[in-house]
Structure prediction request, 164 residues.
Amino acid sequence: MKTVFVTVGTTSFDELIEIIISSEAVQALKARGYERLVLQVGRGCLLPTVESCPDLEIEAFRFKDSIAKDISRADLVISHAGAGSCLEVLGAGRPLLVVVNDKLMDNHQLELARQLQMDSNLLYCTCSTLTKTLRTMDLSVLQPFLPGQPKKFANFLDKALGVR
Prediction:
């Protein structure tokens, strides 16, 4: 069963959860052959149920000790732009669509997502462009995030965050 795994990490990102279970986004996913939606909703107020999304098989949870199995089983991962989440998904070699929370102040997430998209490691969008991105994305353009480059990634993060 073709599966999408959505993760917001340990944060609250209800806007992403609301959009991904909207009828427009669900139809875009179904048009691409996805049948199952697994949602890790973190500290958010929303915990969708089967009734929230009747057109796809749905599972939702707040936290697990590890989401590695959910990532490895997914045909597509949609994630917030947290560095840890991005690295975990890219390290697992799964296609990644990052949704940047453009309501955050001093948004280093956008810089991270932009650079990783420029390197063809992921695609990124915002909540307002998620449905359009789901309709038009081409996952075949994505390149593996090569192991052995964590220093390059760390240096980029340090630079983006003004540590160095």
Summary: The longest strand covers residues 3-7.
